[in-house]
């Protein structure tokens, strides 16, 4: 699946895309034979509907929305993705949809891990599939976006139900590292150097000791060796909180 989408993406960048037939994403994206096509994904795909997008080997497959958009564009279709989707979950047809609509007692549909993950591994779209368990964790995410891009806190077993307790933001700053802290607001831009007093990932709050004054401040991590304070920091924390809210 990765090779197919990567090839399609390369082809799209190789030649300018022309305006194509406008299509909309189906409310229920499903395929019946294990080969996901543009017709499985979009209403109004027409003749381009037979174009393959990915292979589904499990009960479901999680596709990268941007890669799908590029495949569609290459086939002459224009999907605007007005909702700003990052991933598209495709399940295995009417039978799976019926099971999701009315699961039997003790047979709950949840996101599960498609492979074994070691501590520190970052969860990718292809690492998640829908599966059935006797009981779902209390913090089981219903949206793959809530878990994709986070790092495993401990070894995770293939087939296990996904729990938000399993993961955390991938650490980009370690304790003791030098951090540049920025403040930007209303045309004012200031920076200082400090020492990280802990480890943190992007979007997490970190205690930083000002190298000059020895004062400890709280900053929000934006990348390796980088953090911010002030209004921009509050905006980043709010965006992170919204991202992990279950839809």
TrEMBL record:
Pfam families the UniProt entry points to: ChapFlgA
Signal sequence region: 1-19
Subcellular location: Periplasm
Main location: periplasm
This protein's record includes keyword Signal: yes
Domain SAF: start-end pairs: 108-168
Keyword Ligase among UniProt keywords: no
InterPro entries: Flagellar_FlgA, SAF, SAF_FlgA
Keywords, in A-Z order: Bacterial flagellum biogenesis, Cell projection, Cilium, Flagellum, Periplasm, Signal
GO BP of this protein: bacterial-type flagellum assembly
Function: Involved in the assembly process of the P-ring formation. It may associate with FlgF on the rod constituting a structure essential for the P-ring assembly or may act as a modulator protein for the P-ring assembly.
Family listed: Belongs to the FlgA family.
Protein name, entry field: Flagella basal body P-ring formation protein FlgA
Organism: Phenylobacterium hankyongense
């Amino acid at each position: 699946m990765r090779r197919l989408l990567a090839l399609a993406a390369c082809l799209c960048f190789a030649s300018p895309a022309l305006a194509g037939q406008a299509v909309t994403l189906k409310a229920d994206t499903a395929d019946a034979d294990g080969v996901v096509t543009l017709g499985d994904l979009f209403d109004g795909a027409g003749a381009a509907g037979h174009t393959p997008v990915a292979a589904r080997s499990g009960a479901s497959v999680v596709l990268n929305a941007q890669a799908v958009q590029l495949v569609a564009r290459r086939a002459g279709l224009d999907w605007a993705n007005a909702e700003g989707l990052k991933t598209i979950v495709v399940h295995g047809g009417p039978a799976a949809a019926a099971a999701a609509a009315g699961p039997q007692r003790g047979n709950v549909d949840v996101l599960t891990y498609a492979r074994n993950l070691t501590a520190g591994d970052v969860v990718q779209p292809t690492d998640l599939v829908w599966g059935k368990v006797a009981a779902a964790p209390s913090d089981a995410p219903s949206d793959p976006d809530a878990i994709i891009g986070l790092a495993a806190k401990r070894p995770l077993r293939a087939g296990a139900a996904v729990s938000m307790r399993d993961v955390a933001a991938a650490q980009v700053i370690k304790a003791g590292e030098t951090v540049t802290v920025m403040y930007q607001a209303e045309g004012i831009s200031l920076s200082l150097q400090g020492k990280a007093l802990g480890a943190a990932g992007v979007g997490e709050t970190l205690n930083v000791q000002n190298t000059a004054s020895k004062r400890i401040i709280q900053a929000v991590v934006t990348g390796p060796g980088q953090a911010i304070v002030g209004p921009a920091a509050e905006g980043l924390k709010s965006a992170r909180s919204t991202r992990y809210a279950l839809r």
